[in-house]
Structures are given as C-alpha cells and as structure tokens.
Write a structure and sequence with these properties.
The chain has 240 residues and is α/β, with parallel strands linked by helices. 40% of the residues lie in helices and 16% in strands. The strands form 2 sheets. It has a 4-stranded mixed beta sheet, covered by helices on one side. A 3-stranded parallel beta sheet has the order 5-6-7, sandwiched between helices. Pfam families: adh_short (PF00106), adh_short_C2 (PF13561).
C-alpha cells in the first residue's frame, strides 16, 4: 500500500536534494503560484489525483516515488503534467508560457503531423488513394481552456489540411481534421472542473467512441475533403 503525504511550501527545494523527485511546473490559476508541493507516494491513486488538482492551481509539484517499480507511474504522471495538462486557462497571461514550451507543443502537435504527411503522401500518390486525418481541437476555433501554445498549434493543422486537400485531391487523397472538445477517459480530461464541464451544452463530455466514428467516416468517404469537423457537444455554432 502506498503511503501518501503532502507538504506545501515556498519553492526552495532543489531537484538534486531528492533523487526520486521530479519537478514539473504548470499553471491554470494563481491560487498556489510560487508554492511547491512535495507529495510522497505520488504514484498512488490519491497522490496522482492530488498532484493534478494542485497543479491546476499553479503549484509546482515534486513527484516522489519510493521504488523502481513505481517509477513508471511517476514518469507517466510527470509527462502528463508537463506535456498534456499544462494550462494557463483562458484568463492566464501569455508571458506564463516559456518559448521553449511553445516550441515543444508546436513540434508535437504540428511538426509531427507535417512530417508524417511528408512521409506518407508519396506512397498514397502511387496508390492513387489515401486519407489524411488530423486530430485538431475545438481550441483552434475558440482559444480553448489550455492556453495559446496549444490552441495555435492545433489551428495550424487547419491550414495544412486546406493546402493538402487542394493539392492532392485529384490523386485520390483526402485531407480532413477532427476538432473534438472535452473527451472523457483521456489524460487531458482526467479530472475536469465543473466550470469546464459547463461549457458543453448537451451536459456531458464526449466519448472516445464518438470521435472514432468520425474517424471512420473520414476514412471511408472519398468525397469529403478539406473539412474541419467540430465534435464539441454544441459548444460552437459553426465551422472554423
């Protein structure tokens, strides 16, 4: 059984003082900005949930794990906090996003999509058949709930869709993007706040299978191309 303990103080703990601690930094609101939470047993269920909750309040998290067997869970939590749920929210400040973070998110969300298209499309042209389906986000059209780094990286995919679809349509290749909003059972939406849930008019989060059905539509329909399909429970009223 994992023992959970929590210590919150000012950010004075150096990384090297605790060999099993990793220090992601994230911020959604400023309630605990400038504070450090040392969570022992952070790889356990309560520890992980607490880390996510405090991090959304701007607190830096020291992720502690006590054994080699718990390190994979700790590593996964650090990755989630630093790459997937780094939020400053719609009311944050743009200066809170380091340039390095901005570039990393763009490389992850936009650069890899561009590179994969580069590698795959020549083969699709040879076959005279291909489907390019990008996963965008409603944030590309609304600004979203994470921050400008994420929203702009997803918006860039739309320009890529438009160019690819017009360039390669006559080769039997379609290009579309799906822009979901707030999908349950994903790392990004593992613990959404009531305020985030309230943004969805139908009153619930989307389901992964509901997005998968749109993927299947894009894969089987050869006439639909150059489209960004919003699947957001009625959050937006038109296309992007």
């Amino acid at each position: 059984m994992t023992t959970f303990n929590l210590y919150i103080g000012y950010r004075f703990v150096a990384h090297h003082e605790y060999p099993n601690i990793q220090l992601p930094i994230m911020s959604e609101t400023n309630a605990l900005k400038g504070k450090l939470a040392l969570i022992t047993g952070c790889s356990g269920g309560i520890g992980q949930a607490s880390a996510r909750s405090l991090a959304r309040l701007g607190c830096s998290i020291a992720v502690h794990h006590s054994s080699s067997s718990s390190k994979p869970k700790a590593d996964a939590l650090v990755k989630e906090l630093t790459e997937l749920v780094i939020m400053i929210g719609p009311n944050g400040n743009i200066e809170d996003i380091p340039v390095e973070m901005f570039e990393n998110i763009w490389r992850l969300n936009t650069g890899t999509s561009f590179r994969l298209a580069q590698l795959c499309i020549p083969h699709m042209e040879e076959q005279r058949w291909g489907r390019v389906i990008f996963t965008s986000s409603v944030a590309a059209g609304t600004g979203g709930v994470i921050g400008p780094h994420y929203a702009s990286s997803k918006s860039a995919l739309h320009g890529l869709v438009h160019w690819l679809s017009l360039r390669y349509a006559k080769s039997g290749i379609t290009a579309n993007a799906i822009a979901p909003a707030l999908i349950e059972d994903t790392a990004m939406m593992s613990n959404p706040t009531p305020e985030i849930r309230a943004k969805i008019p139908i009153g619930r989060l989307g389901k992964p299978d509901e997005i998968a059905s749109i993927v299947a539509l894009c894969a089987t329909n050869g006439y639909m191309t150059n489209k960004v399909i919003a699947a957001d429970g009625g959050w937006t009223s038109g296309g992007f």
